[in-house]
Design a protein that fits this description.
Number of strands: 8
Strand order of the largest sheet: 3-5-6-7-4-8
Shape: elongated
Largest sheet: 6 strands, parallel
CATH architecture of the largest domain: 3-Layer(aba) Sandwich
Radius of gyration: 24 Å
CATH class of the largest domain: Alpha Beta
Order of helices and strands: HHHHEEHEHEHEHHEHEHHE
Number of helices: 12
């Protein structure tokens, strides 16, 4: 037993962060041995974090948190803090367009009502470069945007270039950019992203131009290239089809159906059924 304890002690003392903690608080041999299990658990946690640095799916015992040793009147414990590496990944691989900077923390609530959404995400993440994206629809405030942001963060860790767009503001921007011929630049960015995410589609003021010259070509390009695309909407797929009809002429019905057919082909359609978290 003594040899085992000595081996564990030697392993712990290879960790510079723990050694600095022991020196700073002048931890005695007796106190070290009393809390050797806490030190060892912290050593294992440090090994996990140092091998990750925010670049891989989190394997910590408390998800997406980092633990630190804490000394308080002769007691040594581990405290948890938000992982400082998470947002650094986003800077390189997650581009937010027309969307306020936001800190994405925590896990997706895994409730029976969200089973279809969770299953769709798990299925997609098995092969994120090849699998279909997801069209998430549901009522206001149920967490569609949060879920999409969470997926984006996971993909950014895999070094996939994700472009996340708040669609209503994209439409407003494009309408104002027509006069200076800058529409093509942004359309090309959305066409060629490794993963494209369009949040709140259907929340915009639709026009024939946006439908036929912007959204249609983007979806067509990505469909032919088998490039993952995600959407959220307050509309279900049938309601979105009505939304895309600027008028109810036969021509507009056909063009709307073409958009909807592409969405169905490129994305798994799932409904998010949950309470309105904005009211809490």
């Amino acid at each position: 037993m003594e040899k085992l304890i000595e081996n564990i002690k030697n392993e712990i003392l290879k960790d510079k962060e723990i050694v600095n903690f022991i020196r700073k608080h002048k931890i005695s041999e007796e106190l070290f041995l009393k809390y050797i299990n806490v030190f060892y658990q912290q050593k294992l946690a440090n090994d996990i974090c140092n091998a990750c640095l925010g670049k891989k799916p989190c394997e910590m015992d408390v998800y997406e948190m980092q633990s630190k040793l804490e000394y308080n009147y002769g007691t040594i414990t581990r405290k948890y803090i938000h992982c400082p590496y998470l947002d650094k990944v986003n800077e390189d691989f997650l581009e937010m367009l027309f969307f306020p900077e936001t800190q994405i923390t925590g896990k997706i609530f895994d409730t029976p009502e969200r089973l279809d959404v969770i299953n769709a995400i798990n299925e997609y993440m098995q092969n994120p470069k090849e699998n279909k994206g997801i069209f998430i629809h549901g009522a206001f405030g149920t967490g569609k945007t949060f879920i999409l942001l969470w997926i984006a963060k996971q993909l950014a860790k895999l070094k996939l270039k994700v472009v996340f767009v708040y669609y209503p503001d994209l439409v407003r921007h494009i309408k104002s950019s027509i006069v200076n011929n800058k529409v093509e630049d942004i359309v090309n960015k959305l066409k060629t992203a490794d993963v494209l995410m369009l949040d709140d589609i259907g929340g915009e003021n639709n026009t024939n131009y946006i439908r036929d010259e912007v959204l249609g070509p983007i979806l067509q390009y990505r469909m032919l290239g088998n490039m993952p695309t995600f959407m959220t909407s307050n509309y279900n797929i049938d309601q979105l089809g009505i939304h895309f009809m600027e008028t109810k002429t036969e021509v507009d019905q056909i063009k709307s159906m073409r958009i909807i057919d592409r969405i169905k082909f490129m994305m798994k359609v799932v409904e998010l059924i949950d309470k309105n978290y904005r009211l809490n």
